[in-house]
Write a structure and sequence with these properties.
mainly alpha; about 0% strand; rod-shaped
């Protein structure tokens, strides 16, 4: 919800309040408020579904790759780390999972 939407709803509610105080029955004002509320409800439902979809993607990624990037993404999301900092944790994961070079035997040196 942005500031413009809030101001529009506030104006519409004020008009509805004036109608109630003055015992008026202008249907257009009521329909305007109903339309704005329906729009906000639809927007809220959409945002809720998008959040559920995002959570399901994170969970399935964590189950498929439990020791790697999927689990890290879920942990970062749950910790509410801003996405702009994810690359720091990705670098830490890459460094931690890097395989050390094979040991060199003394006979190979001579």
């Amino acid at each position: 919800m942005n500031l413009e939407t809030i101001k529009n709803l506030q104006t519409s509610l004020k008009a509805l309040e004036n109608q109630l105080i003055n015992h008026q029955q202008n249907r257009a004002v009521v329909e305007n408020v109903e339309g704005q509320i329906a729009f906000l409800k639809g927007q809220n439902d959409f945002n809720l579904l998008q959040g559920i979809k995002k959570n399901l993607e994170l969970l399935s990624g964590a189950f498929c790759d439990e020791k790697g990037l999927g689990k890290l993404n879920l942990m970062l999301h749950n910790a509410k780390i801003p996405p702009k900092y994810y690359d720091i944790f990705y670098a830490m994961l890459a460094f931690a999972s890097a395989t050390p070079p094979p040991p060199v035997s003394n006979s190979a040196l001579y």
